[in-house]
What we know:
It is globular, with a radius of gyration of 22 Å. 36% of the residues lie in helices and 18% in strands. The protein contains 15 helices and 14 strands.
Amino acid sequence: MTTPVSAPDHESTAAPVEPHRVLVLNSGSSSVKYQLLDMRDRSRLASGLVERIGEETSRLVHTPLTGGGEPRERTGRMADHDAALKAAAEELTADGLGLDSPELAAIGHRVVHGGLRFTAPTVITDEVLKEIERLVPVAPLHNPANITGIRTAQALRPDLPQVAVFDTAFHTTMPEAAARYAIDVETADAHRIRRYGFHGTSHAYVSRKTAELLGKAPEDVNVIVLHLGNGASASAVAGGRCVETSMGLTPLEGLVMGTRSGDIDPAVTFHLKRVAGMSADEIDVLLNKRSGLVGLCGDNDMREIRRRIDEGDERAALAFDIYIHRLKKYIGAYAAVLGRVDAVAFTAGVGENSAPVREAAIAGLEEFGLAVDAGLNAVRSGEPRLISPEYARVAVAVVPTDEELEIADQTFALVAPDAVRVDN
């Protein structure tokens, strides 16, 4: 049984504390990432990762982000998410940031799939949780883990608002022409088959930051966002609203990814079943875990692929070319969807750190008004920046994503809409 953390005692002669902290939880199937933020200035107070939950080799790394504290690590079996979150709570308490603090305003949860119902951050009620459960068939790898994290956090602080921030929410503004697959409507509606899109918190944050970088309001800017990590997705954002995105019913559709195929002829699955005798589960594993860059060349780390290319490895070079070819196709397609493009923004691990990927993706697109300045592109920085020359008609930007901050912002705006903040 989980023992709830006692609600803070507010009966004191001291002045009441205005809650201003948000704990962000990202619960995966065998991991929990967390960050605690002070929303008065949006600063981070602590962060951590618990991985290999349920194994004998469970590991927690906790990092205090104020006062110069050093990361702390603990190892040993953490049987479930309940044990993992309790361990994280103990580390926060050791820093004077315990979950029983009256300064904690809410817990924000990343939830991967919100379907069509959830178009904005939502306070979690029993009915909301039931709907997230009903979406498990379209997000079998993600929503169950998100639900586990929610229930554990509710048990730890039953008095506190718990807020779901959905990966799919930003993409619910897509028009039906973009969201519908061209299959029988009754079948599609009966089984919720449509394009939902993912990485929405990242696309929302980066598109807004790109507008800021250009000195414009989001509603005045059209941006193509390229979220390139092990998972990768593109979006076309017109005036702050998503009008198209590359991922679909699941995160498998779209760009070439670390281990996922991205776009593929659906008949490939029938062919593999009929000719290779593969089961649906085997094909699922093939397309999600043994495809993409790792399937093409055996590596899904772009740094290693580039090293192999420099050594003359033809298989790695072909994998890179396929990756870039797909990127160019989406940039061109989304330029057509938007009609006018003000910026192309690269983000996430590969997008932020791989200058060769950015250079290759933009090369040859000069007629679209796109260009990359080699010197600017080579600069490594954690700050949003332009890498296009001054003469370029369309800006090319590198904008580090911050999904945790986006979740915290949306959570706090929901539970404390009148709070005064000072952006850092």
